[in-house]
Amino acid sequence: MDYLDKITIVTCIPFIILALMFIHFIFFSIVGIFHKKKYPVSGKKYKYGLIIPARNEEEVVCGLIESIQKNDYPQDKLQIFVIAHNCTDRTAEVARSLGATVYEYNNPEENTMGYAFRYLFSCIERDFGTDSFDGFILFNADNILDREYLSRMNDAFAYYDKKCVITSFRNSKNFGSNLISGLYGVYFAVGCRLESRGRTVLGCSTRVQGTGYLINSEIVKDGWPYVTLAEDWEFTADRVIRANKIRYCDDAVFYDEQPTSVRIMWRQRVRWSRGHLIVFYTRFKDLIRGLFSRRTENRGSLYDIFANVLPSSLFLILVQIIQAVVFLTAPLVDKSITFADAMFGKDPNFFTSNGLLMMWLRSAVISYFFMALSAVVIFIIERKRIKGVSAGYKILITLTWPLFIVIQFIMDVQALFSTHLGWKPIPHSDHTSFDNVNKDK
Predict the structure, then answer these.
(1) Are 82 and 101 in contact (CB under 8 A)?
(2) pTM for the full model?
(3) pLDDT tens per residue across span 70-97
């Protein structure tokens, strides 16, 4: 074994360790493809507050309110709350005209969605009492609900005796609008079908993805404390740390409007990355403490969320930099190794070469294949729920899906140094209605 072989083995160890840390995702995916958790129809109809944060959403908030009012759930068990947060348009007026209870909150310094939730729950506690509701379902103003959404969420909530947070399938209103919206659609479908569904079947807590989840009113009896750029990740980490399970209901489907421009996509995902880092910084100690505590009963869920919040992309970049330095200096350490040997290997065979560039190329090709395969699998197994996407767009989305994932590395680096990153609203203008998404039912 020469020097090149030795440094190849040593520098590949961190990659192997990281791969093993995430190997359980394969089991979630396989189970999610073939199985799902079914919930019996509940005779008990709980009372819910429907939470809608809205910043300049006059064009779309009416669609969500209409879809709530047309749901096959007793309307006397529902109350719609809209928090018009730093609005400069007619959002509050439109929501009130449709029968929603509306609160307005203007504070430019408190501009994340978490602050909107915090203020709204304080108003609900003051005016109604949060305990007058069994639970609250949190949405975004651009969402549209499937006709049976509330009933299916209620079934799951009742099944777990109101003790679990329930999340749902996040479909896209504008899946086929263009390439960017299509890539987002696959992103959320992968999260639901290849992650959340398998987690719930296997008894592991899943995570909430921004919106479309149901919580017990007990959770907010003392207010809503999650106000950073990624309040959903904060909430998820805290629920798992406290052993409050998060379960997934695959039959509850809602539709979300996705960005259609590269600029908006980049801005949003960098914000997500920064929020993800904040959760890692603030929850790391609690997660580690829980993993090694003898009293911990949900160790599997804790490990899963710990792996999720790790800034693994930044770790990979660091390891690759170290690997590159080691290989580039190999000719200085061992005079029998040339620069060409270090880059391409002494036997530059694609499958066996231990040269740096050949190893990177091999990893890139293999990763590309499996990431593209995941998009193909999603288009096949979710063909009934993915609508309005032509065959040509499906092929284009599949071919570019790996790039959509890989550019996250660049975004994570940007987020690492963007310490003063603020939250900016994502413009919504898609007018897909309740009737549009329910026309075949």
Answers:
(1) yes
(2) 0.94
(3) 999 999 999 999 999 999 999 999 999 9
